[in-house]
Records
---
Amino acid sequence: MERTIFDMEHDMFRDSVRKFLQREVAPHVDRWHEQGIVDREVFRKAGEQGLCLMWADEKFGGLGLDDFRFEQILIEEIVNHGDPGFGLSLHSRLVGPYLGALGTPEQQSRFLPGCVSGETILGIAMSEPGTGSDVSGIRTRAEDMGDHYLLNGSKIYISNGINGDLFVVAARTVADQPHGLGLFLVERDMDGFTRGRNLKKMGLKAQDTAELFFDNVKVPKENVLGDPHKGFYYLMQFLAEERLIVATGCVAAAESALQTTIEYVKERHAFGQPIAAFQNTRFKLADMRTRIDVAQTFVDRLVMDHNAGKLSAEVAAEAKVFCSELEGWVTDECLQLHGGAGYMDEYRISRLYANARVSRIYAGSSEIMREIIARAMGLDPRQAHRG
Ligand SMILES: Cc1cc2nc3c(=O)[nH]c(=O)nc-3n(C[C@H](O)[C@H](O)[C@H](O)COP(=O)(O)OP(=O)(O)OC[C@H]3O[C@@H](n4cnc5c(N)ncnc54)[C@H](O)[C@@H]3O)c2cc1C
């Protein structure tokens, strides 16, 4: 189905991103997969190409490009011609905007140029060993000591956790209020800040995912983002875009799985005919084509809504749950159509399948997305969730 939201400028951008990925990312994907982390150099190369924090103001080296379609293209191309373990969108659109929206002019001029050039890699740390979905359960504490906050606690499953230089860390500033959180900018070399090992995962192998530890870390007041008691509300504010980013990647991965499978079933023969000739195969692929077109149309519409400042948290949750479950179903069915080959790491479908599993969990699980959608339908929420 023809997509209608892009114009010539976007097509040219897609072309240049593809060339960049083919040159700077594709040759390293297998090595990154094996080593469990991308070379941090690739962020700098993306920065040189103008691909980091494209929305940032020109005075910080950015392009001042707030049209989400450019980020959408980048996400899609990274899935198709790069590696989704390369956490560029997390850097640019999941974390960077906290600095853009909440940072003081001083914080912005201190940090944004490095983020735009790709020298300063960003991460966000909400999840903890004891809590993930329930943000109000965060136990990492930030105690007001006058000229600084004293940070104690730990975080888990943090993307860009090893490569990261600057983390937005959510910590409790009010002991007895579930929503009493602040956001703190923790820098790589701060005393008392350490990281655990790079966690081994079933998918997204090239992404470094780590634990972070804070042992009496002195965070100067200049590194507090916004109001130190409004962190919970800030987090909620940014989650709609996070869901759209994930949904965009899910549809791109589903499309990629479909394309690689179409090629495979035409080549592979059984019982004297291509696998593609079986009615089961054709019907399955036809169902996938249909559902992916529906999902893509939905996501494209939300991208335009987002550009117009009209993306709601609950509709973004609908997209996240629908597209992540679609990705799970498509990659599973496509793997089945590959037979034993699909289980082998060297086949693209095997990685797409393993990567897909986390889409239903991170950035708010499917269950939490359904809670948000139900709440917007007027059904009783009772407790606060991630979202
Ligand atoms: C690869 C990876 C990268 C990640 N990157 C980051 C990152 O960069 N930063 C970060 O902060 N976090 C990150 N996370 C953490 C991720 O956001 C959490 O894992 C996710 O929010 C779920 O939290 P949890 O793991 O604690 O599960 P839990 O909250 O313990 O949930 C366990 C199960 O219970 C269900 N459940 C929980 N509450 C309810 C409810 N009210 N109703 C129904 N069911 C419910 C959940 O849906 C889930 O199925 C990452 C995770 C992974 C796997």
Note: The chain is about 50% helix and 15% strand.
---
Amino acid sequence: MSALAVAIHAVAATLWVGGMFFAYQILRPSMPLLDGPPPRLKLWLGVFDRFFPWVWGIVIALPLTGYWQIYSDYGGMDGVGPHIHAMQGVGWVMIVLFGYLYFGPYAKFKTAVVDEAWPAAGEQLNSIRRIVGTNLILGLVTTAAGASGRLWVL
Ligand code: HEM
């Protein structure tokens, strides 16, 4: 069970952070290849509609598998190093940010694109970009700390 929890935890983190990296660093700068806001905004909606259901699964899997490791392998919160405390703290911030993004800017973005209200959609996309950018940085730091922490924490 623990091997499965570790594997699911690592794969979930890879999918979430890798997906955000691709969206932010690769797809976003490629958008000018499309002509004007409407096709770009429609493409973003298609991308979010496909990525966010995965993220919902991930934000359930990460804490479940993380706390599984803590309580079954490390004997509870007192048995883990500061890198794990930091990971769970930052992890919850990332999860709350994603929840806010999903029910706030993403919901409004979707309505605006469906209504073809392009300036309003563009505004919401800016908020989404800022939140994804923040979560990307937090996710990169958390992944580095999660994977290497036991080697440098005393
Ligand atoms: C939300 C609560 C979370 C808890 C309770 C948690 C807990 C843990 C624990 C106990 C480990 C084992 C570390 C070791 O053996 O030294 C771990 C590893 C790891 N965590 Fe987390 N984690 C959480 C969130 C996250 C998030 C948000 C990410 C990245 C987006 C992440 C990425 C990783 C990675 C890459 C590893 C190393 C691979 C592994 O050993 O599973 N974790 N985590």
Note: The chain is about 85% helix and 0% strand.
